[in-house]
Recover the amino acids of this structure.
C-alpha cells in the first residue's frame, strides 16, 4: 500500500472514497466524503477549533484501498492526539475505512506510517464512536501489542436500535402491551380532537433552508439542546442538512397540527435503514404528544416500506426502549505510544 498524508480534502478521490465506504464493514452516512468535509468546515460545530487535518489515504496503484480520516489536536493541555474526524459529539458512528479483506494490512501499515519521518509528532491515537461489532477494534488491539503500545477499549454510550419486521401490526405485537396501547391511544386521540393535522417529509430543495430553520427553532425550545446549539453548532446543522439532502439521504419530517409545526425529526434514510439524528418538539402543543406521534408515524412508514432497521443512535433515553429498542454500543479505542 502507498500511503499519503493530506492536509486538505482530496476532491479527486471523492467518488472512490464513497465507493470504499459502501464496501466497508461500517457503511454509515457519517463516513461519506461530503459529510466528513462538512464536519471539517465547522470543526465539528466548533468542538475542535485548533484541529489540524491529518487525512491519510492508502492506494494500490490507482485504486483507493484505505482511509484514515484523522485530525491532530492538543486541546485543553491534552497530549498531542490523533482523533477521527467526526469526534466526539455530533457524528455517532466512526471508523477507519477499508474493505474487510484489506483492513488488517491497512491498520498494520497505517501505524507504521504514522511514526514515519515527516508525520507531525503525536502520542495518543484516540478513536471514539466505533460500533461494537467493527473488526477494527480487535485489529487495533493486536497492532498495539505488536508495537508495544498501551491499549484501552471501553464503551462510550449505548446506541439502541429496532429491527423492523416489515409490518406495522407485527411491530406493535412485538413491543410491550402498555406501550402498544399508548401508541394507539395517542394516535386515536389526535384524530378525535378534530384538529387539522398532517405529517410530511421535506422534498423540495427550494424550501430546505426555511424548513431547516424551523427545525432548529423547535430544537431550541429544549433547554439542554439550546445550550448545545451554539452559533457554530447551528451552522453545522444547516450545512449537514444541505449536504445530506444533496447526497440523497436526508429525511427531514414534520408533524403539523392546525398549521403549526408540532414536532420535527432529522433522520438519515440510508441503506434500507433510518438513522435518527435529532428531533425537536413544540412545547406549546405538548398536550398532543407530538414527538411520540411523529415517531410512531415514521415507524409505521418504515415498516410499510420494508426498511430493515430504525437506529436511534447514541443515547439511552428511556423512550427509545419503550418503542422496543435494544442496545448495541459505540466504543472508544485508545492507543498510547
Amino acid at each position: 500500500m502507498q500511503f499519503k498524508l493530506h492536509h486538505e480534502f482530496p476532491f479527486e478521490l471523492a467518488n472512490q472514497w464513497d465507493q470504499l465506504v459502501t464496501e466497508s464493514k461500517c457503511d454509515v452516512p457519517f463516513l461519506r466524503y461530503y459529510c466528513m468535509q462538512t464536519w471539517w468546515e465547522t470543526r465539528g460545530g466548533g468542538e475542535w477549533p485548533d484541529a489540524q487535518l491529518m487525512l491519510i489515504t492508502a492506494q494500490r496503484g490507482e485504486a483507493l484501498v484505505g482511509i484514515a480520516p484523522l485530525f491532530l489536536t492538543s486541546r485543553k493541555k491534552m497530549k498531542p492526539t490523533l482523533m477521527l474526524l467526526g469526534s466526539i459529539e455530533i457524528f455517532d458512528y466512526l471508523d477507519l475505512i477499508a474493505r474487510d479483506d484489506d483492513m488488517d494490512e491497512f491498520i498494520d501499515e497505517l501505524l507504521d506510517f504514522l511514526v514515519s519521518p515527516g508525520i507531525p509528532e503525536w502520542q495518543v491515537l484516540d478513536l471514539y464512536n466505533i460500533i461494537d461489532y467493527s473488526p477494527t477494534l480487535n485489529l487495533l488491539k493486536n497492532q498495539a501489542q505488536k508495537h508495544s503500545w498501551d491499549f484501552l477499549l471501553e464503551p462510550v454510550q449505548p446506541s439502541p436500535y429496532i429491527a423492523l419486521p416489515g409490518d406495522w401490526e407485527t411491530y406493535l405485537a412485538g413491543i410491550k402491551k402498555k406501550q402498544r396501547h399508548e401508541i394507539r391511544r395517542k394516535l386515536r386521540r389526535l384524530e378525535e380532537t378534530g384538529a387539522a393535522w398532517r405529517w410530511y417529509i421535506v422534498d423540495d430543495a427550494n424550501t430546505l433552508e426555511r424548513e431547516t430553520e424551523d427545525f432548529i427553532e423547535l430544537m431550541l425550545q429544549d433547554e439542554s439542546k439550546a445550550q448545545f446549539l451554539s452559533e457554530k453548532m447551528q451552522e453545522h446543522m444547516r450545512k449537514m442538512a444541505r449536504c445530506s439532502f444533496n447526497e440523497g439521504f436526508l429525511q427531514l419530517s414534520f408533524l403539523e397540527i392546525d398549521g403549526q409545526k408540532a414536532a420535527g425529526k432529522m433522520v438519515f434514510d440510508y441503506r434500507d435503514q433510518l438513522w435518527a439524528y435529532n428531533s425537536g418538539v413544540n412545547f406549546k402543543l405538548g398536550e398532543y404528544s407530538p414527538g411520540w406521534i411523529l415517531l410512531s408515524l415514521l415507524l409505521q412508514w418504515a415498516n410499510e416500506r420494508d426498511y430493515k432497521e430504525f437506529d436511534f443512535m447514541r443515547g439511552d433515553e428511556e423512550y427509545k426502549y419503550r418503542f422496543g429498542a435494544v442496545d448495541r454500543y459505540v466504543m472508544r479505542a485508545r492507543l498510547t505510544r
Notes: The radius of gyration is 21 Å. The chain has twelve helices and 14 strands. The mean pLDDT is 96.
